[in-house]
Design goal:
Chain lengths: 553, 366
């Protein structure tokens, strides 16, 4: 086959973006893997580090602890999220939209924040300390509550989707065969969303086992894998052992990722275009029960946020309960001051702009490029890989790769550039999948028609693909922006004196005992993320109105 | 009916094959299409007709073989360097552009045209496809049939040498489809543009095409005019796929065949005879109006059931020991009334020997 000019340009774009993923993902990970087989002088020592790791009881306990936290969190989160999603999709209770919006709160804050709220509620001087009945919040109890808060929205989003695709005719068939409500629930409802349940469970498990924020703030002496990496690297400067723990932490993450991919494929195959949408029927008792449940969950989410806000405003808890803005004087604290907040805005903006361009262009090339099947599957794999790499592991891998003296790229270490690069790659997969989903909804023949009309691909890309995919493009940019604002894990190893970030400032101020300012900074992140989300909502609405005239169906 | 057809091959395909892994989608296809001709690729789903069309367009490259268009070897050219317009089943209209912009899309890629030239060309095309004044609408504001015409106008806007239609009418409902068949055909004849249409709908093919290419399992079964394909199907597959056909087990005898104990005269010249064969008869070839000077085979049959199908009546007829031979016979509603045929009665039927076709036994028809 002779290549057209378009083919060559498209492949060049794809290879360039693929190389970006190789340099910012594959190579750092490889470097980290090889570091785990070296001593501090860079000599190859085989499995010695691993043997040492497994012979250090303090470190090996963390595996058990991490699994324990992740499993309990998964069980609790899935139960709550399923009931919540069920209420939103299958009941006739009021305020569904409001409840759905409230569940998104945890996405807008760093995972450190629920920990801080728990300290104020149940800590040594907590407002509701008595409710702990002598137990300490610092440890597994605190971590699990914080992780449930942090993982809830992710599970709810997946389960709402899973529960919305029900086929009403299945329920009508079951009813006509006189099945009881319980029997219908177990024979129709649960099997109908089983892929969603599995997928949600693995997403929650991965988030909980790889999260670093909650155990850092509320974990006390209870060590988990994520905090071990941090301690090995930041505390003991033992980079090689950090690499070993990272490899251990990759195992559950990669496993969960693989299972999720398999399940996603099955789910896609089980969807049919001919399903009749299920419309819930009013049922007074059921609707009321669901409403009460959703109010309780929302109260939990809002309560945690409210406590943080209270903590941020109270002058000196618990001794001076006057309200004021003293805790917002970040420049008086260690942790980076207001500059760190501005740095976060800068990071989030660059990540959103550059990341969206990069991700969408990459997804377009890989979806629409003619031939070149091998190149495309390599690209697809590279684009999926970030999902399986926990943020802390990515950050550490970046240190190994970009801070190496013989790497010419080491000039970007500690700069804004490396923060942007790492954040884009950290959140690449979900953005890529969003773009691919949107592109797959376009008529596959647009490019064929355009080629027959002798239009170069970039004209069709610019005049047809981008306008139609604008909602998805906005979604991607907002996703990147919000995550860049809230993330701690990858950037914790990469920021420099001039590039401190708000989320890192929360961590460092909390570490230094300045919990109230930490809460205040956390709330700054929340306002910003929520503001941007709101702006996105209105922008999408406007866009929707403007494009309504040509919307298909 | 082939006024615009000349005898110069405009498109020739030489020994074209296409494999997807181990699966052979097209095997050794050779055919020629003449200038101004309307050709239909007809076949059941999975027969390779769309694959062949996409190979001609350069959208899916063939594994081996050559394609010559207007004297130029285009076998390895990318689609953007070939000369064709295409209409897909989904139309693939750009939803965010108004109708006029959609039609102008290809024209705008030709640098020499000015804005006013493009506009007047778009007006002309809109009028040509019967949609004047609709240029400012978005595709989603049009009906399916109208969208289909816009797609057609966009495809012919740049006056390509070859028009490719990939199941263009399949997404429409029956009435609109029947109407558009004639419109598309009339437009094609008016423009004299060489056209290839892919369809699985034999009725569509019969009403529109100058010639058929019948495909099955990636091979060409037969190429010919609609009459040839219908009346002289060369293989049992073609006989079965186009129209309705009775397939009856026959034993070859001297200058004829025996079917269910009835000896039928037919011409065995040029047929590779075997003792057991399959005889194919169109239902409408059974003749019930018998007079003294009716020639050919005549034998008694029993009318087992009667199915009223509007303009004609389909009879289930039986003959032979234990009614072993069962066939359909079609009679016009008019004749049916005139002859007073009834369920359960025995009648004599006539079958002119030239309507009997014989195929090797064994291959199970569809």
């Amino acid at each position: 086959m002779r290549l057209s000019r378009d083919d060559i340009i498209m492949r060049a774009f794809m290879i360039t973006i693929g190389l970006y993923l190789v340099v910012t993902l594959a190579l750092p990970l490889y470097t980290m893997l090889s570091k785990s087989f070296e001593n501090s002088d860079g000599m190859f020592i085989g499995l010695t580090n691993y043997i040492e790791y497994f012979n250090t009881p303090a470190l090996v306990y963390s595996i058990e602890n991490s699994l324990f936290i992740a499993l309990i969190t998964t069980a609790i989160t899935i139960t709550i999220a399923y009931t919540f999603a069920y209420a939103l999709t299958r009941s006739c209770m009021p305020f569904k939209g409001l409840f759905k919006a409230l569940t998104m709160i945890p996405i807008l804050v760093p995972s450190l924040l629920p920990g801080i709220a728990l300290v104020y509620l149940f800590g040594n001087q907590g407002m509701l300390k008595e409710l702990m009945f002598g137990h300490s919040i610092y440890g597994p109890i605190g971590i699990i509550i914080a992780e449930v808060f942090f993982t809830l929205p992710h599970a709810i989003i997946i389960l709402i989707t899973a529960l919305s695709i029900a086929d009403a005719r299945m329920y009508e068939a079951a009813l006509s065969l006189r099945a009881s409500r319980t029997r219908i629930f177990f024979t129709v409802t649960i099997p109908g969303c089983r892929y969603g349940l599995i997928s949600a469970a693995f997403v929650v498990f991965t988030l909980a086992i790889t999260d670093f924020g909650a155990p850092k703030v509320i974990g006390g002496d209870f060590n988990v894998l994520a905090t071990d990496i941090y301690k090995q690297v930041i505390g003991q400067q033992n980079f090689e052992m950090g690499a070993v723990v990272s490899m251990v932490l990759m195992i559950p993450a990669v496993f969960a990722f693989v299972v999720d991919r398999i399940v996603q494929k099955r789910q896609a195959a089980s969807l049919t275009a001919h399903a009749v949408a299920l419309v819930p029927k009013p049922n007074k008792n059921f609707d009321r029960t669901m409403l009460v449940f959703c109010m309780l969950v929302s109260f939990f989410l809002l309560g945690m946020l409210g406590v943080c806000q209270y903590a941020a405003l109270v002058k000196f808890y618990p001794y001076d309960l006057n309200i004021g803005l003293t805790n917002y004087q970040f420049d008086l604290m260690d942790g980076g001051g207001w500059d760190s907040y501005l740095n976060s805005i800068e990071l989030a903006s660059w990540t959103a702009i550059l990341g969206t361009v990069l991700v969408f262009t990459g997804a377009y090339m890989v979806e629409k490029c003619r031939g070149f099947d091998n190149g495309r599957s390599v690209f697809q794999m590279l684009a999926m890989l970030p999902m399986a790499v926990p943020g802390l592991v990515l950050g550490l891998a970046f240190i190994f790769f970009f801070n190496a003296p013989d790497n010419p790229l080491n000039v970007i270490y500690h700069t804004m550039i490396i923060l942007v690069i790492s954040t884009i790659v950290h959140f690449y997969t979900v953005s890529h999948l969003t773009a691919v989903t949107a592109l797959k909804q376009l008529d596959v023949e647009f490019e064929s028609v355009a080629a027959s009309l002798k239009a170069p691909f970039y004209r069709t890309f610019w005049r047809v693909t981008v306008p139609i995919c604008l909602p998805a493009i906005l979604d991607i940019s907002i996703y990147l922006f919000v995550n860049a604002m809230t993330t701690v894990s990858a950037v914790i190893f990469l920021y420099g004196p001039d590039t401190n970030l708000a989320s890192v400032a929360v961590l460092n101020m909390d570490d230094a005992g300045d919990i109230a300012p930490a809460a205040a900074m956390g709330m700054m992140i929340f306002y910003t993320a929520a503001g941007v989300r709101l702006a996105h909502y209105f922008l999408s609405r406007m866009l929707d109105k403007r494009t309504q005239s040509w919307k298909m169906r | 009916m082939t006024t615009t057809t000349s005898n110069k091959a405009f498109l020739s395909i030489h020994e074209l094959s296409k494999k997807f892994g181990d699966f052979v989608a097209l095997s050794d296809i050779s055919l020629e299409i003449y200038e101004g001709e309307f050709v239909c690729f007809l076949g059941p789903s999975g027969c390779g007709k769309t694959t062949l069309l996409r190979a001609i367009a350069g959208l899916d490259m063939q594994t081996t073989g050559r394609i010559i268009q207007a004297g130029q070897d285009i076998s390895v050219l990318p689609p953007s360097e070939r000369d064709f317009g295409i209409v897909f089943q989904s139309y693939a209209l750009f939803p965010n552009m108004r109708v006029a912009k959609n039609i102008a899309y290809g024209l705008e890629n030709q640098t020499k045209q000015s804005r006013s030239e493009i506009n007047s060309r778009v007006e002309e095309l809109l009028a040509l496809v019967g949609l004047p004044e609709q240029g400012t609408k978005f595709p989603s504001q049009l009906s399916g049939g109208q969208q289909q015409r816009v797609a057609l106008a966009r495809a012919i806007a740049t006056s390509p040498g070859l028009l490719l239609l990939d199941e263009p009418l399949s997404a429409l409902d029956a009435k609109v489809r029947a109407h558009l068949r004639h419109e598309v055909k009339a437009l094609q004849q008016r423009l004299g543009i060489t056209t290839i249409m892919v369809t699985h709908d034999q009725e569509e093919a019969l009403t529109m095409a100058d010639r058929f290419v019948v495909l099955s399992d990636g091979r060409v079964e037969q190429i010919g005019s609609p009459e040839e394909i219908y009346q002289q199907p060369q293989t049992a597959f073609v006989a079965d796929f186009v129209g309705t056909m009775n397939f009856l087990p026959a034993t070859v005898q001297a200058d004829g065949v025996e079917v269910g104990g009835v000896k039928l005269d037919c011409d065995l010249a040029g047929i590779n005879t075997a003792p057991g064969m399959t005889m194919a008869i169109r239902p409408e070839d059974f003749n019930f109006a018998i007079s003294e000077d009716t020639d050919g085979n005549q034998w008694p049959i029993e009318i087992h059931y009667v199915e009223f199908l509007g303009s004609f009546v389909r009879l289930g007829i039986h003959w032979g020991a234990d009614d072993s031979i069962r066939a359909y016979a079609d009679v016009s509603a008019n004749l049916y009334r005139r002859l007073g045929l009834h369920q359960g009665e025995t009648r004599t039927v006539n079958l002119p020997s030239e309507h009997i076709r014989l195929y090797p036994a064994g291959r199970k028809p569809l």
